[in-house]
From TrEMBL:
InterPro entries in the cross-refs: LysR-type_TF_proteobact-type, LysR_HTH_N, LysR_subst-bd, WH-like_DNA-bd_sf, WH_DNA-bd_sf
Organism: Cystobacter ferrugineus
Family, per entry: Belongs to the LysR transcriptional regulatory family.
One Pfam family, short name: HTH_1
Protein name from the UniProt record: Transcriptional regulator
Leader sequence segment: none
Domain HTH lysR-type: 3-60
GO BP annotations listed: DNA-templated transcription
Record keywords: DNA-binding, Transcription, Transcription regulation
GO molecular function terms attached to this record: DNA-binding transcription factor activity; sequence-specific DNA binding
């Protein structure tokens, strides 16, 4: 049974990384040992789990089916270990976390030294990326997601609200007629985030009132930092998350527009695979972020005194 668990663990690592070299490095074994384990597993099962060429590794149909069951078994083993270790002391083990690129860098990374000092038994492995991550197939323990959750199979905890504000640099606003209503945006140079669900129509909200405005983008980008830099540089008006522009607003490099109006909020969530027993390392990480983001999150505190344009 121990050999089979090793083989399953090895197969899951190769299936996740699609690389024997990367999987061997992750497991701390040499590539020949890893290859023997996979070959032994395939012989025992009587079918090929992986397709191997000189350039790439991919899953066979049988491999994809086996990975689902294999992941479930390994998760249950980890849950059992977590239960026992949780009874015996502090959480420990490697914790793989997927983070949105900018939010992870700006709002999570600065908190990590405190978390690591508080939980020295946990080894963190962080991946910063904006693409959708399949937690189970890619082997992540927990992910931070911003927006509307669509995967109902995951366990989610809301950590904070992702509030977005309309803003521009004083340089852009100088000499222009003040904006008094959402419809005024149609005649402005706008900096447009390509992932907005409504395309180039910006929907603004004030209480229960909603107004949709077709904007005229002078810059389109799927990178919010590029839009922030353009806004600070006086290129136009942007609708950006407060976690990104909080310091700019506080310092006066950007000013808020259309007081009371905002792009509809989204949520900041911690998500992890379901299970009857949540590993203590996952509970520790999620609880830590929930504690630090409770009430008014730190990026919102920085702009409470920011002036309006």
């Amino acid at each position: 049974m121990r050999d089979r668990l090793e083989e399953m663990l090895s197969f899951a690592a190769v299936a996740r990384t699609l690389s024997f070299a990367d999987a061997a490095r992750e497991l701390g074994i040499n590539a020949s040992t890893l290859s023997r384990r996979i070959a032994r597993l395939e012989r025992a099962l009587g079918t090929a789990l992986l397709r191997r060429t000189t350039r790439r590794v991919s899953l066979t149909e049988a491999g994809a089916l086996y990975l689902e069951r294999c992941t479930d078994v390994l998760t249950r083993v980890e849950e059992a270990d977590a239960l026992v270790s949780g009874l015996g002391g502090a959480p420990r083990g490697r914790l793989r976390v997927a983070l949105p690129n900018l939010f992870g860098q700006l709002q999570v990374a600065p908190l990590l030294p405190e978390f690591m000092h508080r939980h020295p038994g946990i080894e963190l492995e962080l991946s910063f990326m904006d693409r959708y991550v399949d937690l189970v197939h890619e082997g992540f323990d927990v992910a931070i997601r911003i927006g509307t959750l669509t995967d109902s199979s995951l366990v989610a905890r809301r950590l904070a609200t992702n509030r977005r504000v309309l803003c521009a640099a004083p340089r852009y606003l100088r000499g222009r007629r003040p904006l008094t209503k959402p419809e005024d945006l149609a005649h402005q140079a706008c900096l447009h985030f390509s992932f907005f669900a409504d395309g180039e129509t910006w929907t603004l909200r004030r209480g229960e009132e909603r107004v949709a405005v077709r904007v005229r983008p002078v810059l389109r980008s799927d990178n919010a930092e590029a839009l922030r830099l353009a806004a600070v540089g006086g290129c136009g008006i942007a609708a950006l998350a407060t976690f990104l522009v909080g310091e700019d607003l506080h310092a006066g490099r950007l000013v808020r527009l259309l007081d009371g109006w905002s792009v509809p909020d989204a949520g900041v969530f911690a998500v992890h695979p379901p299970g009857r027993l949540v590993p203590s390392k996952v509970r520790a990480f999620v609880s830590f972020l929930a504690e630090r983001f409770a009430g008014t999150p730190p990026w919102e505190r920085a702009i409470t005194q920011a002036r309006l344009g």
